[in-house]
Specification:
Helices cover 47% and strands 13% of the residues. The chain has 250 residues and is α/β, with parallel strands linked by helices. The chain has a seven-stranded parallel sheet, with helices on both faces. α1 packs parallel to α2, α1 packs across α9 and α3 packs parallel to α4. It is globular.
């Protein structure tokens, strides 16, 4: 299906692996130009870049820590100069970590909030400056089912993702009607982040879902691509939840 994304300039944070990688390749397949943001392996980012280029689009990569406002500003300037002004921002960068509340350190709490919530803020601020000049654009923030459910030993992660949901709704009101802001709140997804918790954890989690399985990264990417497309031009301030039925809304 042609989602009419050809020629759009898209920045996806945390897009060298997992859900971010699937999102980047999905946009490239639709003809969009991509900035791959990453903080880890340059080799992994290069692999995604080469795969995306196979679709004949412009692709660049940029290492930046989204929790550092200056690095985010520099990344957007790099995009302006090497790809073009942003049309679509996907805030995907993040990590998961479990810790009982009695053992959760200040440093763990601060890092979780900085990467997820500050990272969204820094990137949205830079994107909004550019989108307001063009009077159009789309922002899609990646949240989590845990923002609604909560989860023992993931209090800092759940709090960060809940903050993203509230931030998304407020920003959607502020930037309407021409800049649309939504979030995608996936369930557990087969990525390296989840696999780090072990096979037993994955099996136990899947058993909780009505669909009895976790998501594939491409299934989450499809929801992001929908929100980025003209098919979702009447969506703003929404939290879409591809989660296998573990959270049922409406």
């Amino acid at each position: 299906m042609d989602l009419k994304l050809k020629g759009k300039n898209v920045l996806i944070t945390g897009s060298s692996m997992g859900i971010g990688r699937a999102i980047a390749l999905g946009f490239a397949e639709q003809g969009a130009n991509i900035l791959i943001n990453y903080i880890g392996s340059d080799q992994e980012a290069e692999k995604v870049l080469l795969q995306a280029k196979e679709y004949g689009v412009n692709v660049v990569k940029y290492r930046a820590d989204v929790s550092d406002s200056q690095q985010v500003r520099d990344m957007f300037l790099y995009m302006d100069n090497h790809l073009g002004t942003i049309d679509i921002l996907v805030n995907n960068a993040g990590f998961a970590q479990n810790a009982p509340i009695t053992e959760l350190t200040d440093e763990q709490w601060d890092k979780m909030i900085k990467v997820h919530l500050y990272g969204n803020f820094y990137n949205c601020r830079e994107a909004a400056k550019r989108m307001k000049e063009k009077n159009k654009g789309k922002i899609i923030n990646i949240s989590s089912e845990l923002a609604s459910l909560g989860c023992e030993e993931f209090t800092h992660y759940s709090a960060a993702k809940g903050g993203i949901n509230a931030f998304t709704k407020s920003l959607a009101r502020e930037l309407a009607p021409n800049i649309l802001v939504n979030a995608v709140a996936p369930s557990g997804t087969h990525t390296a982040i989840l696999q780090a918790f072990g096979e037993n954890y994955i099996v136990e989690e899947a058993a909780k879902y009505p669909l009895k399985r976790l998501a594939q990264p491409e299934e989450i990417a499809n929801t992001v691509l929908f929100l980025a497309s003209a098919n979702a031009d009447f969506y703003t301030g929404q939290i879409l939840t591809p989660n296998g039925g573990v959270v049922m809304n409406g």
